[in-house]
Amino acid sequence: MAESKQANAPLSPGTRWLTSGLTVAAIGIALWGLHPVFDGTGWWLQGVVLAALVVLGATVVRSFARRRVWGTVAAVVVAILAMTLMFVASTAILGIVPTWDSFLAFRALDQAGNRDIATQVVPAEATEGIRFLVCLGVAVVAVLMDALAQLFRAPALAGLPLLVLLLVPSFVRSEFVDPAPFVLAGALWLAMIAAQSATPRTAIGVGAIAVVAAFLAPLALPTVTPPSNDSTSGAGGGFASGINPMITLGDDLRQGNPTVALTYRTSDGTSEYLRMTVLTDFSGQTWAPTVPEPGADVEQMGPPPGLGDGVPLERLTTQISVASILSTWLPVPYAAESVRGLEGTWTWEPEGLTVRAVRSNAEGQAYQVDSVQAQPSVQQLTGSGSGPFQGMDEYLELPNELPQIVRDDATEVTAGAESNYDKALALQEYFRGGEFTYSEETPVAEGFDGSGAEALGPFLEVKSGYCVHFSSAMAAMARSLGIPARVVVGFTPGDAYPTGENGEATAYRVSTDNLHAWPELYFGNIGWVRFEPTPGRGSPPAFAPLDADDPTTPDVDESVPPPPAPAPTPTATPSAAPDVPDDTVDSPVDQATSPSGTTTGSPWPIASAFLALLVLASPALVRLARRTRRLSRVRQGSAIDGWDELRDIAYDLGIPGDVTLTPQQLASVLAPHLDDDGAASLARFRASLESQAYAREGTAPSVPDLRRVLRSLRRRAGLARSLGATVVPLSLVREWLPARQ
């Protein structure tokens, strides 16, 4: 009863306002932890103002309202009104009352914010979309902290949403975690606990331990946070984060107004595909990179995987000048052996020979790539074997939900083909032979825009899509036939233009329209070979023709068009790299571009999911904290706290009763819901309660007796009702519910 009175009694005005002030200060400190992620301070000031308005609104309403819950309602209302005024006032009534158009504008801001995150590198410019996402997160944290601290009177739990805000920088890059906001916000959280605690010294002791833990926590975060842009992950993100450029590649292709991404020239004047990232993990949702160990020195990269002896090679030197690709992935030809002239720290990935930044990005880079290109003959390709190839298991994995049409079409299309190379040519010709059409709009209209397994079935039926669908389908079909396959994202060769004083040299200009995806298939003793299934885009590779006097080798499809530039003459042994001038490509780059492949691994979906779980778990956590505190007081001799716990557990389990019942009446209500052992324990505990109430020297209560009663009530209630009482403890809101009879 004492506990219930204490929980239901209003806070004093001083305590209420102190708690509110500490809440706003803690949010402001935690929000400042994002300063390595965003440029400037305007986003921080806007977030702090929003937090202050939300908490102030809740506190003012609680000062006059009879029920504390109205303060939380006010916090939500103020958050919506303030967000409307800050971001979409032109769509609102009187600039503050949101309309349906306001919520549509909110949605547009959310999409813009995620796109801005995808196309920027840190510290990112705090665009309106990004500021909207920051303020949205602040509003959620402010409402939750206020509700936990003042509605549920659980200031200790108010630290959980604060912790989520503190951890956001680690979702971007683990080294961005600053211990100072952890310590300062932890100290303010401790003060919140002390402000409402009946035993401040105990709260300070516990809080001091929490502050020390908060100081040490950031030091351990790199082992538990998502990979930063110097590694990769299988979910979410784009070129800007170096994670996964497949998810919204179509959005980039549909954006219109192509701009120059980069220019390049090669030592032999030929054009080249430029690769940025290799996607090997086909989980079913999308194609995504794996997480390999990076190589350290991009000036001395490893050999092409799978390349054996006897395959003719040609060495090539490429000079590349990037305009404004805001990406941690670097455009390079395959197979790069050395990259020189880069600014910043870069690493390379051994399996795909891709290059990515650790503390830099591709924007404005001018560099030279020395590469080696395999020139296998058709005889070598057809004789490369059908596997299985050692260490290729990950390149053969397919999701369980892969539509059956993928396997069926692959089998039908390659019927009669003997070698893996013949099957690969058959798949390529199937897509380029005229049955399929290139369209960036059809997948959107038909509802299968994506690279996951669920998109492949509709794509193969409709027979229309863009590079994401063609490359994904061919790679999946190849895997179903036992041919190791992966998807590459980068750029097609671009358009040639004359350069030099007299126009005697040829360079190439690559625009955002050249952003592309294509499959690579693996052949024994040769390695990875590019194919081009997308009709009207790029060019299929050409190989040395079959020997005329070799009747054992199957014919090659002569309908496959040659590449736009002459194929380099193969040599028996690697030749010296031709000289290329060290100056960068002479190109009129009129406009910078940001061809991000897709959205980045935004921290907000993760934080939102964490906050949603927190909301669901909050009642159970608050109830657990209340029970723990009561049992502690029972050990100190307070029988009334144990009796309050019995009242609440009975209410949570759905046992009829009322807070006005006397101990004798409550014992009579509980008796039918107890076994013999529980009934005996209840009688002893009730005796100690009445002894403390009426005798000069009361009997100390027994914690074991109380625990036996609680266990007995739960056992007799059954598993389902007991779990319900744990997850949804209605005793927390009993004062707002009608009395049970």
Provide the descriptors you would attach to this structure in a database record.
741 residues; alpha+beta; six-stranded antiparallel sheet; 22 helices; 17 strands
Poorly predicted tracts of residues = 1-8, 198-244, 544-607
Class of secondary structure makeup: alpha+beta
Overall radius of gyration:
33 Å
How far apart, in Å, are the first and last alpha carbons?
A: 19 Å
Strand order of the largest sheet: 7-10-5-1-15-14
Strand content: 5-15%
Taking all residues together, what is the mean pLDDT?
77
The tally of helices reads: 22
Number of strands: 17
**Helical content, roughly?**
40-55%
Q: Supply the number of structural domains.
A: 3
Instruction: Please tell me what the overall shape is.
Output: elongated
Main sheet makeup: 6 strands, antiparallel
In short:
With 741 residues, the protein is α+β, with helices and mostly antiparallel strands. It folds into three domains: 242 residues, no CATH class; 282 residues, no CATH class; 100 residues, no CATH class. 44% of the residues lie in helices and 12% in strands.
Describe this structure in words.
β16 and β17 form a beta hairpin. The chain is an alpha+beta fold. It is elongated and about 105 Å long. The chain is built from 22 helices and 17 strands. The strands form five sheets. A six-stranded antiparallel β-sheet has the order 7-10-5-1-15-14, with no helix packed on it. A four-stranded antiparallel β-sheet has the order 2-13-16-17. It has helices at residues 2-8, 13-32, 42-64, 69-87, 100-119, 128-151, 159-172, 179-196, 200-220, 249-254, 378-382, 404-413, 420-432, 442-446, 453-462, 467-480, 603-635, 639-652, 663-670, 676-694, 703-717, 719-727; strands at residues 260-266, 274-279, 281-282, 287-288, 313-322, 329-330, 336-340, 346-349, 354-357, 366-374, 437-438, 464-465, 485-491, 495-499, 505-511, 515-523, 527-530. 44% of the residues lie in helices and 12% in strands. It starts with a helix and ends in a 14-residue tail after the last helix. It has three domains: 2-226 and 601-617, no CATH class; 249-530, no CATH class; 637-736, no CATH class.
